[in-house]
């Protein structure tokens, strides 16, 4: 992943952010030691942001598209209401056990529901609304995930989408963009044109699009 801030500034932001919970620090270490593509982990700074958003919104139901090793799910669950649940979807069944083990370590085994499979098939079968949705899966399908969840989010609810700067490639000429970067740019444009949401693109880590639903 491209370094959007200098290493010294990146370290400074982490130094002046509340430290990771111990369970997150352990998951961070194990992911980097044992799991392929650890760059996909949300990590300290983004995780702290997800926790802060969750505490501010106090969601009852959360949907996460893209579990990876469960770091972001644990962060998102921190501000959830006592009777709330987080549903998280990932296509990689090989990561299911590590996720569940850390959900248990975080005391969230009864709060987080894991779905293994294709999110495009699973989302339509979820017959409920979500106060908060986090999109962090395959970039080519961001626009489809958005279309599937927008009607499941009530007015006043929030959607977050990760990697919306895609290593900085989104500002390159189209012919120089990778397929994923082009897909992300088109997703960003789709959000910008959607009158149902207010939105802000935050240059945090690899970019997070923060959306608040304002209409139907």
Describe it:
With 216 residues, this protein is an alpha/beta fold. The chain has a single domain, classed as Rossmann fold. It is 37% helix and 17% strand. The protein has eight helices and seven strands; from the N terminus they run αααβαβαβαβαβαββ. It has helices at 7-15, 22-34, 43-57, 71-76, 96-105, 119-122, 142-149, 179-193; strands at residues 61-65, 85-90, 112-116, 132-135, 158-162, 197-202, 208-213. It has a seven-stranded mixed beta sheet, sandwiched between helices. The longest helix has 15 residues, at 43-57. The chain is globular. The chain starts with 6 loop residues before the first helix and ends with a strand.
In short:
Helices cover 37% and strands 17% of the residues.
Question: How would you summarize the topology of this molecule?
Answer:
Blueprint: H1 7-15, H2 22-34, H3 43-57, E1 61-65, H4 71-76, E2 85-90, H5 96-105, E3 112-116, H6 119-122, E4 132-135, H7 142-149, E5 158-162, H8 179-193, E6 197-202, E7 208-213
